[in-house]
Amino acid sequence: MAEVAEHPGPSQRSGRGAEDVSEHHETRGVSGDAPNVTTRTPQKDIPQATVARLATYLRVLALLTDDGVAIVSSEELAVAAGVNSAKLRKDLSFLGPNGVRGVGYDVARLRARIEDVLGLSDGHRVVLVGAGNLGRALVGYRGFRRRGFSVVGIFDNDAEVIGLEVEGLRVRDAADLAGEIALLRPTIAVIAVPDDSAQQVCDELVAAGMQSILSFALCQLTAPAGVELRRVDLAVEMQMLSFERVRNADPDEPVEGSTTANVAETATGQANESGAAGVVPNSAVPAARPLTGSGRIARRVPAHPMPGPTGMSVSGPESVTERDPGPTLVPNRHGLSHCAAQAAQTTSHTATEPTSKGSVVTP
Ligand SMILES: NC(=O)c1ccc[n+]([C@@H]2O[C@H](COP(=O)([O-])OP(=O)(O)OC[C@H]3O[C@@H](n4cnc5c(N)ncnc54)[C@H](O)[C@@H]3O)[C@@H](O)[C@H]2O)c1
């Protein structure tokens, strides 16, 4: 938390910018003076981009709590979250009055309020289907539990995997999915099976009553209306980084061991010095640009990044500034042909793709 303390640090006293918190004052929700959350903000009124940023604020608030910080100003919270303070105040206005003019936000109360709005107050029970490389890494990541997501069941259909213990959980037989889900009462299901099994698993989860499904399969899945289906593709995140890296390259500034021509070749997939299309030798890779560069991702990085525990990062700034390494991902051994066949019929929301209204548009 040293980063927060330095720029300028949240404290037990009111911080700079605390007076700004009075900008948001909606009549619904809790009063700034009320000790308890009594009224739910209608979640449907909150834009999805704001929801994604609320999750970021929540992460920052959790770290502040860990550090014993009781009050934080809007400016301090904004810096730590990597957004500008006006946007933060606008986001928090959806929660109703929370801050106190000249004082700031009560960290515990704001945290509880955001958890309430995000539906996290009671935590979530998560089941995961596919106890392979990815599934085991996800189950092994303790950050989920810290953030209210407890994996209560893990399933597989491989006889050699069923019965194995993963992080204290016995891998259950996927054939028993429906009955086990009725017993386990999960609120979220995660799909980590190969692409050619993903739709079938999705259908089984829906049939078992699951209404919130997160899929790591690369192919797009379909589900009935009323089922919230989100997809995470870390490769898309890296493709976006790749794009930003190329876009941020200054054509007038030669980079050691490289030329602007190299950059252009990388972007277009044309042959470079090595003679291989789209492959650039290490020496030709341009140096990283300063975070203050003109690129969209670079602009979203906080001036003073705050590391913190994160889960499957599908959002903006925190994915650049994580403290915890998160799950270790192992390359998939399956092809993509199945996905291509399904690409035409999609209903899933893609958490990481730029076309989504999802969390990629965080600050
Ligand atoms: N979105 C991402 O960023 C990302 C990253 C890595 C992997 N993936 C995807 O995650 C999936 C899993 O990858 P992996 O490397 O863990 O694969 P893996 O082969 O190591 O594990 C897959 C597991 O699923 C099980 N399985 C297969 N069919 C099943 C079914 N019908 N019901 C229950 N279990 C079943 C297998 O027995 C195996 O244990 C793949 O689709 C991969 O493309 C996505």
From TrEMBL:
NAD(+) binds at G130, A131, G132, N133, L134, G135. One of its GO terms (biological process) is negative regulation of DNA-templated transcription. Homodimer. One of its GO terms (cellular component) is cytoplasm. SUPFAM superfamilies: NAD(P)-binding Rossmann-fold domains, Winged helix' DNA-binding domain. Residues 56-95 bind DNA. This is Redox-sensing transcriptional repressor Rex. Belongs to the transcriptional regulatory Rex family.
